[in-house]
Amino acid sequence: MAAVKELIRAEADGSISFGDYELASKTKKQDFEYQGDLYKVKTFREITKLERNDMFVYESVPGTAVEHFRADADSVEFQVEGPEDAQITLGMEDDTEYLTLVDGVSTGAIKTGLGGKLVLSVELGSRDAVSVKVLKA
Prior knowledge:
A hairpin with a 5-residue loop joins strand 1 and strand 2. The termini are far apart. The protein is an all-beta fold. It is built from no helices and 13 strands. It has strands at about 10, 15-20, 25-35, 35-45, 45-50, 55-60, 65-70, 75-80, 85-90, 95-100, 105-110, 115-120, 130-135. The chain has a single domain (about 10-135), classed as Immunoglobulin-like.
């Protein structure tokens, strides 16, 4: 997997891919329509951010490339790659507990606050893409 050169794209399996951590300056693409929703992505080496219908969905510091991102009411899953370890923030349901798995290994339960943001760290660097799955407990 490498950076998503078109910044955001729909995949044949019903997911989306986004982000280009190789860009030197902030680049964005907005009004990307997919399954009735409008997406906006901002990405470069320092940050990658995704919004759906003007609502926060995903953010990583530093920037990452995300493939096969899919989210529903009870879960979020995706593959992520980047040049170094990343802190990822996901927009989830308020005041809810979630189980997190990174490469199939549980990293424990995380409870969101009133803002619904779930924060996790992922070791990337020289590794291939890492799978992340977040499930409502």
